[in-house]
Amino acid sequence: MNITEILKERAELVEAELLKYVSDTDPEFGVIFDAMRYSLLAGGKRLRPFLVLEFARLAAIENGGDADNAEKGALPYACAIEMIHTYSLIHDDLPCMDNDDLRRGMPTSHKKFGEANALLAGDALLTKAFETASSNLLVSDKTNCMAVNLLARCAGAIGMIGGQVLDLEGEKQKFGMDTLERLQSLKTGELIRCAALLGCYAGGASESLIVSAEKYALGLGRAFQVVDDILDVIGDEAVLGKPIGSDADSGKTTFATIMTIDEARDYAMRLTDMAIDAVGGCEGAETLIELAKYLLSRNK
């Protein structure tokens, strides 16, 4: 199994679908659609959509259904969560937040389109996500309602946004491990957990698989953040496509400041093992296991 090829294949599938959702324009305010497309179609791992699709397949295998059909039914949810993720990146990069000039080796949205249009592009992607999820014709209305509710909670004040507030507070004060883990579980972890659960919903997963999906997402999401923090210290800027050392420049507490690099690596390994153990007994989980191993060893 070549996980990089699988990731590439799924990313291309998701990107082709995303383009359909943001293909609009307007002679008077077409700049907003340009800005939406610029950030949404700028590449990236497409990790969250991948998790949506893979857990939909896993759920279908569990209940004897068709994995390919389950993946098709989950595709609108995969697109919706990527829209929310992209909106969060646009806003994260703004001068009032992290003030970054580069994202994936390209000028950030506010550098390309101006702060106001970047802000509005993020808003537009957030609202488009709910339109996309609620309009999914391949699953039941009840499933769509569950999906929209989950997206709203995970992306909202008690989820990702709450984590972003904690992240900003971290520029003013030093955190202990408990607060740092809570920050991660909200800012990064909630959308990863959301992705896994959206796939479960689309595939009709059992309660036991939902529990396993949440444990997997917790381990994977936290390990992902730990590796991100390590790369911000020792990564290659040319490979990462963004400046390194930005967390240190902002005085933020990260997993790479609260422990040594070797300790952080060991922590990421333990978290990855936790993720693998969570789905190890599930039929068809080989791709998710390989994904966890791949993300642990990534350099961007």
Summarize the structure.
Helix content is 73%, strand content 1%. With 300 residues, the protein is an all-alpha fold.
| Shape verdict | globular
- Low-confidence residue ranges: none
Termini separation comes to 21 Å
How confident overall, as mean pLDDT? 94
Number of DSSP E strands: 2
Main sheet characteristics: 2 strands, antiparallel
Over the alpha carbons, how many angstroms does the gyration radius reach?
18 Å
The share of residues in extended strands comes to: under 5%
Order of strands side by side in the largest beta sheet? 1-2
- The helix/strand order is HHHHEEHHHHHHHHHHHH
Structural class: mainly alpha
Helix fraction, binned, reads: over 70%
Q: Helix count?
A: 16
Describe this protein's structure.
This protein has 300 residues and is mostly helical. Helix content is 73%, strand content 1%. Strands 1-2 form a two-stranded antiparallel ribbon. Strand 1 (102-103) and strand 2 (106-107) form a beta hairpin. Helix 1 crosses helix 3 (47-62), helix 1 (3-21) crosses helix 4 (67-93) and helix 7 packs antiparallel against helix 10 (189-203). The chain is globular and about 50 Å long. The protein starts with a helix and ends with a helix. 47% of the residues are buried.
Features:
mainly alpha; globular; two-stranded antiparallel ribbon; 73% helix; 300 residues; 1% strand; 16 helices
